[in-house]
């Protein structure tokens, strides 16, 4: 079984000598002391996408060829979406425990839907996601933990939920982000965290395999090159991802707004196009389950909340987080996507690349270790 994104920071902590660290990924197996680790999360860098990037990304090509570093496969958590994965990375806990169970979630007891990317301070992050992060745990152990992030990320609910306890190095628009990240690696021992969204943005907007996507791969590789070139003795670079992805053709899209049967009995729609959480009107859950099961046969696995939780896809689910999962959960199979144009911004329906479900194309991610 491959390791998990939840194992990355506990293994880094072990590599840095923190007493709570647990190296389940074998990072401490190589000889030679390490006093600083730079973890770069490349949004959307799925395991299955690596072979398609080699013409644009010399470092990734060298890794795939076995000439540079070490490569192993991990799995992200479910749903395979950025907010869920970032908090799983940061806390080392599965989604059922940390509670960030999707891109958007219904706030129990209300009809509100929280978009985790736009989340600021309502609800308070310490209540919505109360688990400590590994950034905080390392800090408590006397290990410097820094997160080098765009200035607009600092102070957001998601940033605090995933990276709380880190020293934030805020990067302004127009700054040389690769250079600033490399500078932080040289500056002091400890954990240095970086994030790049270019590949995922290009996949969503233009599609995996598009010229835009290949150009983004070149920018990712250039960032990694800058970090590697400036790494001092005792430094290690770990590159991982939050999910993979796939393109969804127009004829594989189901829009709830186009079929009244799919909207009947549904009070709140959350999740994302590859995993839908349906919060139903009182007494309507059984009918919604039956209708969705019939209409989406062969395109989605439709389950009750209890069935989805019992399957283990979320890991152990804390009772405080149960109501965040829909009464009915529809997880797309194949290359389908379930749009909700009556509930979401119109740009969602214009996307080409998607992720969120449980296919290997979405959940398998790399871990690259370079010293």
Automatic annotation (TrEMBL):
Pfam families: Phosphodiest (PF01663). InterPro entries: Alkaline_phosphatase_core_sf (IPR017850), Phosphodiest/P_Trfase (IPR002591). Gene3D superfamilies: Alkaline Phosphatase, subunit A. It comes from the Bacteria. This is Alkaline phosphatase family protein. It comes from Mycobacterium vicinigordonae.
């Amino acid at each position: 079984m491959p390791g998990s994104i939840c194992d990355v920071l506990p293994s880094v902590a072990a590599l840095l000598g923190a007493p709570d660290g647990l190296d389940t990924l074998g990072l401490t197996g190589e000889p030679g002391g390490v006093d600083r680790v730079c973890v770069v999360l490349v949004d959307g860098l799925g395991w299955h996408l690596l072979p398609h990037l080699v013409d644009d990304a010399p470092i990734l090509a060298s890794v795939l060829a076995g000439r540079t570093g070490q490569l192993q496969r991990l799995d992200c958590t479910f749903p395979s979406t950025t907010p869920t994965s970032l908090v799983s990375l940061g806390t080392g806990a599965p989604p059922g425990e940390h509670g960030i169970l999707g891109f958007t979630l219904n706030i129990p007891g209300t009809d509100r839907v929280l978009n985790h990317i736009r989340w600021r301070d309502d609800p308070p992050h310490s209540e919505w996601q109360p688990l400590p992060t590994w950034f905080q745990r390392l800090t408590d152990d006397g290990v410097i933990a820094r997160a080098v992030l765009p200035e607009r990320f600092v102070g957001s609910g998601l940033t605090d939920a995933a990276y709380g306890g880190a020293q934030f190095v805020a990067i302004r628009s127009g700054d040389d982000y690769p250079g600033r990240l490399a500078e932080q690696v040289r500056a002091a021992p400890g954990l240095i965290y970086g994030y790049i969204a270019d590949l995922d943005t290009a996949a969503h907007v233009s599609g995996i395999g598009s010229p835009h996507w290949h150009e983004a791969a070149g920018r990712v590789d250039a960032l990694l090159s800058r970090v590697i070139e400036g790494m001092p003795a005792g430094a290690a670079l770990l590159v991982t991802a939050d999910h993979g992805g796939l393109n969804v053709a127009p004829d594989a899209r189901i829009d709830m707004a186009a079929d009244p049967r799919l909207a009947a009995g549904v009070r709140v729609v959350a999740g994302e196009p590859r995993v839908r959480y349906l919060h139903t009107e009182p007494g309507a859950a059984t009918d919604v389950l039956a209708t969705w099961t019939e209409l989406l046969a062969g395109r989605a696995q439709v389950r009750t909340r209890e069935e989805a939780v019992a399957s283990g896809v979320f890991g152990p689910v804390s009772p405080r987080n149960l109501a965040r999962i829909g009464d009915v959960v529809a997880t797309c199979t194949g290359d389908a996507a379930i749009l909700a144009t009556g509930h979401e911004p119109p740009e969602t329906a214009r996307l080409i690349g998607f992720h969120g479900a449980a296919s290997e194309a979405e959940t398998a991610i790399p871990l690259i270790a370079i010293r």
